[in-house]
Design brief:
Layout lengths: L33 H13 L10 E4 L8 H4 L7 E4 L16 E3 L1 H7 L5 E2 L3 E4 L9 E3 L5 E4 L3 E5 L3 H11 L2 H10 L10 H5 L10 H32 L29 H10 L8 E3 L9 E2 L6 E2 L7 E3 L16 E2 L14 E4 L7 E3 L7 E3 L3 E4 L8 H7 L3 H10 L10 H5 L2 E3 L3 H45 L2
Parallel strand pairs: 2-7, 12-16
Antiparallel strand pairs: 1-8, 2-3, 4-7, 5-6, 5-8, 9-18, 10-17, 11-13, 12-13, 14-15, 14-17
Helix pairs in contact: 1-12, 7-12, 8-10
Length: 476
């Protein structure tokens, strides 16, 4: 009897046959698609080793309740770094720019099993987007992690770095994704993660060369970004005085008549005096006098996992980086789309808690979005205030010093809408504001181009290594 064959016009990756003997305990279609199946066979020709053979110890953590913030969490100065998926990078290095902190009691008890030490390998196991992103904890690191990644102890720093480079290859990520289960929130369970085939003795020297060149590009980009603050403050005639930290300069008295009805904490008084020790070229105007309408607090709901790129984004504080740019990894979708929270062109968002003071400006080129409850929306009077000028002003050292003065001390510092409305803005004529904003936009664009070139260098090196791996296997 002749075997069954599909017609030539059928897409073989969408309609295909699998022999019963080839089933591996999985029944989901994506697992057996011909392209991914062929890739798995090619890699298995090269090795019999699996990730489980290179693991000394594996553990995962949990996420302490944010409703019990004072019980579990702490400040940067007093806490232990608590890693999340957004801290992992395909470069293999941890990103520590946006880290939450837990207290030592939580670290040493509730999350004792998921403690992270130097040279540990961290691998993403749940969430949409790229699976099995891997990074290595730097030397001297002491931290913890949640349930969305695992911490793997290996025999050495070199072994952890090798595995990070390997798992971050696109072809290996495809094998990790193949092993994941779940639709709305894919996940790799421990057996699936451990089953990833590992080819040993790959020469990753191309990556090291590319990483060096990448760092050079990134340093050039950072130098451009660092120049912005000096340019902006120079154009405004503002020179921030250096704070004298000698003990006698940190001790001062304030007449009682000057503190009645306002803040009494010493940090506020000291920094406010520094801010207004000189005037600059332009008079200060409070933000409240440059607004249209009333500031609006965001939607109090939990975002859901992204399904398609057309979904309405749910912007949280953690989605905004230190430059006020939206992160594009691991973002959430709005569960309900309440039109009152939809962002419009040039809406300004301020973070009122957590990464307090962080600022974002929405543009029509961005994903349609609503904003979360710990963010406040402001609409400015464009006849008096250029929104881009305000955004850049709110990334300056002057603004950051103001935030550090005005924020109320707590486990999680905060600033409310009325306090933001009191923000003093050195206000040039609108034409000068536009000139400053245009120049800074150009600097940021140059820096972004350099960062893109840096990323391409690393991607090209990875692609070359993948070609060598697959080419070597096919020749055997």
């Amino acid at each position: 009897m002749a075997g069954f064959e599909l017609s030539a016009g059928v897409n073989a990756d969408n309609v295909f046959l699998v022999k019963h003997s080839e089933l591996e305990g999985r029944w989901d279609i994506d697992y057996y698609r011909p392209k991914i199946n062929a890739l798995e066979k090619i890699i298995r020709q090269k090795t019999t080793k699996k990730l489980k053979d290179l693991i000394v110890k594996l553990a995962s953590g949990a996420t302490p309740s944010v409703q019990e913030e004072t019980k579990f969490y702490s400040t940067k100065e007093n806490g232990i770094p608590f890693l999340r998926v957004q801290n992992l990078n395909v470069s293999g290095e941890l990103s520590l720019d946006d880290v939450k902190y837990i207290n030592e009691e939580t670290h040493n008890n509730y999350l004792k099993r998921s403690q992270v030490a130097e040279h540990d390998l961290l691998v993403k196991i749940t969430g949409v987007g790229r699976m099995a992103i891997a990074s290595v904890a730097p030397r001297g690191f002491n931290g913890n992690t949640n349930q969305h990644m695992v911490v793997i102890k290996t025999v050495s720093e070199a072994r952890s770095c090798y595995l990070a480079n390997y798992l971050n290859l696109d072809i290996i990520e495809a094998l990790a994704t193949r092993r994941s289960t779940g639709a709305t929130r894919p996940a790799l369970d421990y057996p699936a993660l451990k089953s990833i085939p590992i080819i040993e003795d790959i020469d990753f020297s191309l990556l090291k060369i590319a990483e060096t060149k990448k760092q050079q590009k990134e340093q050039q980009a950072q130098a451009l970004l660092d120049s912005i603050d000096g340019y902006l403050l120079n154009e405004l005639g503002i020179t921030l005085p250096k704070q004298d930290n000698r003990l006698e300069k940190r001790m001062f008295t304030v007449p009682f008549s000057e503190v009645v009805g306002i803040r009494t904490d010493p940090d506020y008084s000291l920094k406010y005096a520094l801010l207004f020790s000189q005037k600059g070229y332009y008079n200060f105007t409070k933000l409240k006098d440059l607004l249209i309408g009333t500031p609006q607090y965001g939607a109090n709901e939990e975002g859901k996992e992204r399904i398609t790129d057309d979904d309405v984004r749910y912007i949280r504080i953690t989605d905004i980086d230190e430059l006020g740019i939206l992160k594009n990894n691991n973002w959430k979708t709005a569960q309900t789309i309440d039109k009152q929270y939809l962002l419009n062109q040039d809406d300004i968002l301020f973070a009122r808690s957590g990464s307090v003071g962080r600022c974002y400006i929405h543009k029509e080129t961005e994903q349609p979005a609503i904003f979360a409850g710990y963010l406040i929306r402001f609409k400015v009077n464009k006849e008096r205030l250029n929104p881009d000028f305000l955004f850049y002003y709110c990334n300056s050292m002057f603004y950051k010093l103001w935030v550090s003065a005005i924020e109320r001390p707590a486990v999680q510092s905060n600033i409310n809408a009325e306090e933001f409305k009191a923000l003093p803005i050195a206000l040039p004529p609108i034409e000068k504001q536009t000139e400053i904003a245009t120049h800074i936009t150009q600097i940021r664009a140059q820096a972004k181009q350099l960062q893109a070139e840096a990323a391409k260098l690393l991607a090209a090196a990875k692609a070359e290594i993948e070609r060598m791996i697959l080419g070597e296997v096919k020749q055997t």
